[in-house]
Design a protein that fits this description.
By secondary structure, the chain is α/β, with parallel strands linked by helices. The chain has 14 helices and 12 strands. The protein has 2 domains: 9-248, Aspartate Aminotransferase, domain 2, CATH 3.40.640.10; 251-388, Aspartate Aminotransferase, domain 1 (Alpha-Beta Complex), CATH 3.90.1150.10. It starts with 8 loop residues before the first helix and ends with a helix.
């Protein structure tokens, strides 16, 4: 089954891009661990010449993800950052990009400390207000790069409104969809041109690979990214593609469980006397809850809020003590895996964002971030309860 957009999301997750292997009928796509392919005559081959350019295991993964994001083509990379840097390959010296101010720290670092050396300029704005994007437009603006919800403050940007704005100014709209995965948010359907993922997170979901993906709808962008993927060469190994392909088969089940665990954890934290504030788009108190209910939908139209929660403790001391006391939650960077993780963004994932910038966007040293896994909710709550004591 190559893509078959008619079938259900869960069915596509299991089957899209995959068909029985012709030699033996193996139901699982093999790991084509090869660097090159034998040609029958010069220039006569079976569609593969060299493994940087193409690999059947990678192709199966790319076809699968294109089908899940409702795109026409996908391109796999060795990391989420490799995917983001390849998106920047669409731009040229002098171009300007408007970026969500609270993007992943590594994206901020790459744009500010690498891409500016190549003559690109960036405006980091609060994209949750579309007017702020309009106000940051310049004659040389070429792209808007969004993350929604953001990491770790979980602010949302209205994708449909931003896509309309981008279309009227002839700008490309790229969206980092890592936090929601295609199960809960499909930006191409809302008018985005490019979707980027760190597949190290929910898409793979088992904390055992680093990977990235770009998905597009237009043939023109697909052609350009096929060129850039090969020209830049930041491609993943066939084994990592195979692991990711296998993991995606359970993406709907994992996302449902992580979402329901996060809803229960956010309710628990909200009522805890040592907690000052809980940030979770599923809570009615979240400033963008209404937008979340409209924009973050599972394939059956039901709102989903994902597995990420941030919260602030009343005292900074409680934070570090609690992190040391936890038994089940692992203190670690990253997110989206089956194991529940906890972190302190200011000293971990966002340490590369200067303190003044962190303060400007409201990312306090007191903030704790949870990535809810798929464990039993009673055990997760019991662990938080004993650590907060
Ligand atoms: C939202 C988001 N985008 C991109 C990345 C970068 O992905 P990778 O670590 O796979 O390079 C991350 C990593 O944490 C992320 O959280």
């Amino acid at each position: 089954m190559k893509d078959n957009k008619q079938s259900d999301f869960a069915t596509r997750a299991v089957h899209a891009g995959q068909s029985p292997e012709p030699l033996s009928g193996a139901i699982t796509t093999p790991i084509y661990q090869t660097s090159t392919y034998v040609q029958q005559a010069p220039g006569v081959h079976k569609g593969y010449e060299y493994a940087r350019t193409g690999n059947p295991t990678r192709q199966a993964l790319e076809d699968n993800l294109a089908a899940l994001e409702n795109g026409s083509a996908a391109f796999a990379f060795g990391s989420g950052m490799a995917a983001t840097s390849t998106v920047m390959g669409l731009l040229a010296q002098g171009d300007h990009v408007i970026v969500t101010q609270n993007v992943y720290g590594g994206t901020f670092r790459y744009f500010q400390q690498v891409m500016t050396n190549y003559g690109l300029s960036f405006s980091f704005v609060d994209t949750s207000e579309t007017d702020n994007i309009a106000a940051a437009l310049r004659p040389e603006t070429r792209m808007v790069f969004l993350e929604t919800p953001t990491n770790p403050l979980l602010q949302l940007t209205d994708l449909r409104h931003t896509a309309d704005l981008c279309r009227s100014h002839d700008l490309l709209l790229a969206v980092d969809n890592t936090f929601m995965s295609p199960y809960f948010q499909r930006p191409l359907d809302l008018g985005a041109d490019i979707v980027v993922h760190s597949s190290s997170k929910y898409i793979n979901g088992h904390a055992d690979i680093i990977g990235g993906i770009i998905i597009v709808k237009s043939d023109k962008l697909a052609e350009r990214f096929a060129f850039l993927q090969n020209a830049v060469g930041a491609v993943p190994s066939p084994f990592d593609c195979w692991l990711t392909l296998r993991s995606i088969k359970t993406l709907p089940l994992r996302m449902q469980q992580q979402n329901s665990n996060a809803i229960a954890l956010s309710d628990y934290l909200l009522n805890h006397p040592k907690v000052n504030k809980v940030i979770y788009p599923g809570l009615a108190s979240h400033p963008h809850h209404e937008l979340a209910c409209k924009q973050q939908l599972d394939p059956y139209g039901k709102p989903g809020f994902g597995g990420m929660i941030s919260f602030e403790l009343k005292s900074e001391k409680t934070g570090s003590k609690m992190l040391e006391q936890l038994q089940l939650f692992s203190l670690a960077e990253s997110l989206g895996g089956v194991e529940s993780l906890i972190s302190q963004p200011a000293s971990m994932t966002h340490a590369s964002v200067p303190k003044e910038e962190r303060e400007r966007i409201g990312l306090s040293d007191n903030l704790i971030r949870i990535s809810a896994g798929i464990e039993h909710i009673d055990d997760l709550i019991a662990d938080l309860a004993q650590a907060l004591k």
